[in-house]
Amino acid sequence: MRRYCLRSLKVYSRAMKTTRSKNLFWFVAAILLLTDWMAIAQTASSFKETNDIAVVVNAKNETSELSMSDLRKILLGEHKFWRNRTPVVVVLRQPGTRERDEIVTIAARMADQDFRQHWQAMIFRGEASIEPLTVPSNGMATEYVSSSLGGLTFVAGKNLRPDLKVLKIDRKAPGEPGYPFK
After folding, report:
1. What is the DSSP string of 63-76?
2. Could you give the CA distance from residue 154 to residue 99 in angstroms, rounded to a whole number?
3. Is the Cα dihedral 10, 12, 18, 23 positive or negative?
4. How far apart are the two ends of the chain, measured CA to CA in Å?
5. Strand partners, 81
6. E strand or H helix at 56
7. What CATH class does 51-169 carry?
8. What is the structure's pLDDT at 49?
9. What confidence score (pLDDT) does residue 112 get?
10. In this predicted model, what pLDDT tens digit does every residue of 5-30 receive, in sequence order?
């Protein structure tokens, strides 16, 4: 009987360790997720204080930083997929808006008319099927990106939603000195 009790105690002890380990794992995982969520919310709110134009992607996108060269390649249709093979979908505001004009001028290094001609030529040559999606409002751009894993758009800090991820450009975030889209 004594051996049975000792064996039962050992089995119970192992089960408790396993249960404790599982509980500890889930507790730590919950804390990490909460911390990440709070960091994202805090980051989004800090960007709202700036009028810099943020490069924004879906929150589930693995990318957290782009070089200006990579951003230019994305805008010109030379870089068509994210690292996880998800197609990149560029969402731009209409011509004449600050977000579009600054991004096309600074990142693509061309006038809007040249940018449109570039995309029309790519479509004509069969190198692209469509040009970047153009929408009339920030709300439509951010809504599309929040629901599309491959979406990328450009939004002034004051219009930034907390459910989107802001990318650093050349290791600079909006509001930091040296950020290119002021």
Report:
1. --EE-HHHHHHHHT
2. 6
3. negative
4. 79
5. 87
6. strand 53-58
7. alpha beta
8. 77
9. 97
10. 445 545 555 655 566 666 655 564 45
